[in-house]
Protein: serine-type D-Ala-D-Ala carboxypeptidase
Amino acid sequence: MKKFFATFLCLVLCGGLLPAQAAGPEVNAKAVLLMEKTTGQVLYEEHAHDPLELASVTKVMTMLLIMEALEEGTITKETMVPVSATAAGMGGSQVYMKEGESFSVHDMLKAIAVASGNDACVAMAEYLAGSESTFVEKMNARAAELGMENTVFVNCTGLPAEGHHSSAYDIALMSRALIQNHPDIRTYTTIWMDTLRDGTFQLANTNKLIRFYEGATGLKTGSTDAALYCVSATAEKDGMELIAVVLGSPTSADRFETAKALLNYGFAGYSLVTVAPSEPISPIPVTLGTADSVQPVLTQESQILLPKAEAGKVSTTLSLPDTLQAPVEKGQELGSLTVLVDGKENQKLPLVAQEEVPRLTLWAVYQSLLGTLFCGT
Structure:
């Protein structure tokens, strides 16, 4: 009790009690990281760049490459994928595929996302790249493209292998690429229970947050004796999706409690705010053009991540010329929209021409002058 009051007094004398948000979430893991999906902003981290074993969280990259193959049209969800002896012989988590069986890509994704099937991963790797080793080369190439500097993949499953490692930050990068570019992956990562083989084989999601955390959208668990308990957990609330990566928790329960603490910390403390002009953007007059004016527009919708206390303090100012002289190209930068948070500049967004305005030809100018003269007589 004396220790408690001494600590309390110290906090008060040193400037008051810190709000709970400033203290950070309570975590129990070797490394953690919390990232917001849209902006990629990191909200909390501990040892986020340490290279660590990641177990079946590896399958985030495997799923990313499968989803990219679907997007490219290399495969469809109805494509039937054969199971080789190698794939059927994979240990660890599996759905007990047999050599000579074939499953649709749809069912393969269910097996990977829900049951963490190593056999399904290898079957897909062999189908897409000819062999698991060639597929792993593609995994490492994609990791390099995403800026995953502390990652080396040795297999597509996450089974223990010397040199196979990643970091909490790198896992967040590939998780973000998966859920941001391929939102359809939620079709699989949000399944709690399902079946394969026409309902004869039961699947249960290894990610218990899908059942017990409101807004959970995925993503992938993993555990081995060396990696301990890991998860890349995603959840969405109020239009904001967060990625919580947990590596090396001592128990499965600690893994999920740490992920929940990270997600709660993010949702409680931050908001994703859509930026819009504080006033309508009027067309800019154009001289010597085939049109009298051109409309400035934002190139894309912008969203910024802010502490909730600052979410209501966003304003904007416009910087545009009074007039323009033709020609004006479509997409030409005309000015900017400055975003202010509590009166301080946060970012500048370009405003561009919505359409092209060609310059009048000499003959068109001459005709215009003639028209003016005759109309004036």
Remarks:
- The two ends are 99 Å apart (CA to CA).
- The chain has two domains: 24-268, 276-356.
- Residues 1-21 have pLDDT under 50 and may be disordered.
